Amino acid sequence: MDRNHERLHRDERDLRSVGMAELQAIYADLGLTRAELDLLSVPRRSFTVSFPVKMSSGKTRMFTGHRVQYSDARGPAKGGIRFHPEMEEEHAAELAFLMALKCAVVNIPFGGAKGGVVVDPLQLTRDELELVTRGYIRAIADHIGPFKDIPAPDVYTDERTMAWILDEYERIKREHVPAVVTGKPPDLGGITARRYSTALGGAQVLEEAMKERGMEARGTRVAIQGFGNVGENVARILHHWGFTIVAVSDVNGAILDPRGLDIPALRQHKGRTGGVAGFPGASSITNEQLLTAECDVLIPAALSYQLDENNAGAVQAKIVLELANAPTTAGGDEILFKRDIPVIPDILANAGGVVVSYFEWSQNLDGDAWPEEKVLRKLKHTMIHAFNDVRGHCREIRCRMRTAAYQLAVKRILNAERLRGNL
Ligand code: GLU
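A: This is the predicted complex of the input protein with glutamic acid.
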């Protein structure tokens, strides 16, 4: 666990360096005015709360939580809540800004937010976790709402956490408000496909990028770093579509089989053993070997800062699909660009989650329950549309996809500010 925390912490720091490096360049390229820069540089609202929780021992412990609403120019602020020992306000602000860019690039009517509680959830009992969730929501209840700020799952929070959030919020308001939070269990107004929508959205944009290069599923070899919610689902989906998954990893190990891994059997193996290591017939490799494995598509779906100047030169993939947040450093990105390896950037590649959150919010506001077919059709439409927008902008200004995605998002946010009379 400590190792996970260390890595997660590193994730967030690196997010900053990558995101901010990209933004500096974009600000220069777009020739933003001082007022525009100022407007983008600070979150609109940022809350820090402290609240007491009576622990199972009978003793009261104080907890600290944050919520940052970076931008709400395009709509209510939107973004996850994470439970993490290193969940500092500064990290929340950076992640909230990325959420604003993500929502803008896929053109859904939300701003960006992020928040969480400074806690190691693995050290708490189920009941304590519930009390912490409820205490946090009581503390921020005045600042969230279906037209203000809509939380969702993030690191170490899930459907069950969202159910507690919903229930606590509704107790406070004394009415039903299902659209206050997304990523809920389907029986409380959630959407089943939300569970795998980040992976599916990523697979859909990958398919588009492959079409441009005349590549097809059959014969395309994929290496996936991470076998959690996103990694496992993308492996399942791509395997089903006829791709050959040659390598996967999780926090305890990486495996390779150049003939292709049997993903349904691997998922069963994970169910039995808790991880991918030791899967019969596959060879054990290092994390570094996974990133530079012989493959056509590389999918970092775990941690930040994985592709850097030390290993980007050895990547053998023809396309990189960033399903993790900020898995490529600025230095790594530069090398991949020079080597002509296209990177489908995180704010586009992993936006499928928040897109389905948007559908959930809309169906809740309408008192509706969308059929799965409608969710999947609209997710695909939104992702492909966003991909085409980014590709079109790329061609226009002849730049890498990351730059185009950031530029499009920044322009859309600034345009909303302008229309509101804020610029
Ligand atoms: N936490 C997810 C993300 O970072 C989803 C946010 C949402 O659905 O609001 O994209």
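The two ends are 46 Å apart (CA to CA). The chain is about 45% helix and 15% strand.
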